[in-house]
Design brief:
single chain; 242 residues; alpha/beta; 6-stranded mixed sheet; 10 helices; 11 strands
Length: 242
């Protein structure tokens, strides 16, 4: 029963989630912020998914007050179209490869993912983790060889984590922050710093929100000394304070 419960817990990471007891105040955010945002402020209602999915929901009129994305692409497009206020950068991240704890494919470096028969999971091209992964593979010059081994392209990073942690794939590209919650089930393989894409998280207030005071207060918490400390503890990098 314990094993079954653990299995369900990991699978739950792969689906968009709504958490919190904040009444009408809602924060839409990238899936990679699932663990840290509720620690910074447990009061809002959170909806976590791929940054592209969340941006689409906002365009379709979903009732959100704050939007946080794992790529400036989505916040800047919403800003350009007048849907959010000017976004700010609040965190950075890095990519790593994770493999199951047992490492059945015996992967020791990213270059091992070129080997025939290795099952690799990456993010869909439209979601930040997928775009960043492709940038890194291009920088390393191994895109074609690795893509031949891709068995699944997930709509958010939690889907990648879930498949690797459950042993359904030999390796997956995720953010370094996503390995911490499943540290007992996966191993980390570091990637060359020179090949890392620039990963920046942005946050913005929706122009449509009637709760602008609460939205500003939430962003102040994220960018506060305590918020930055919690982000750092979760493995995120921090931009310089202005």
């Amino acid at each position: 029963m314990r094993a079954l419960a653990a299995l369900f817990a990991i699978v739950a990471l792969s689906v968009p989630s709504a958490t919190g007891a904040g009444g009408n105040f809602t924060v839409f955010a990238a899936a990679s912020l699932t663990e840290v945002f509720p620690k910074i402020d447990p009061s809002p209602r959170y909806s976590f998914a791929g940054s592209d999915q969340v941006a689409l929901q906002i365009r379709q009129g979903a009732p959100a007050d704050v939007y946080a994305a794992a790529s400036p692409k989505y916040t800047q497009l919403l800003y350009h179209d007048g849907l959010v206020r000017k976004p700010i950068i609040f965190a950075t991240n890095k990519l790593i490869v994770i493999v199951p704890k047992s490492n059945p494919a015996q992967i020791s470096s990213v270059y091992g993912l070129r080997r025939q028969g290795v099952k690799v999971v990456i993010g869909d091209r439209g979601v930040p983790i997928g775009a960043y992964t492709r940038q890194l593979l291009d920088a390393l010059g191994i895109t074609d060889a690795v893509m031949r081994n891709v068995v699944s392209q997930e709509t958010d990073v939690k889907g990648i984590v879930s498949k690797v942690a459950l042993g359904e794939a030999d390796a997956g590209f995720v953010y370094v922050t996503d390995a911490k919650p499943v540290a007992s089930k996966v191993r980390k393989i570091l990637l060359p710093d020179w090949a890392q894409p620039l990963i920046r998280y942005q946050i913005a207030i929706l122009n449509s929100t009637p709760r602008k005071v609460g939205a500003r207060a939430f962003i102040r918490k994220v960018t506060s000394k305590r918020g930055r400390l919690l982000l750092k503890r979760a493995g995120f990098g921090l931009p310089k304070k202005r």
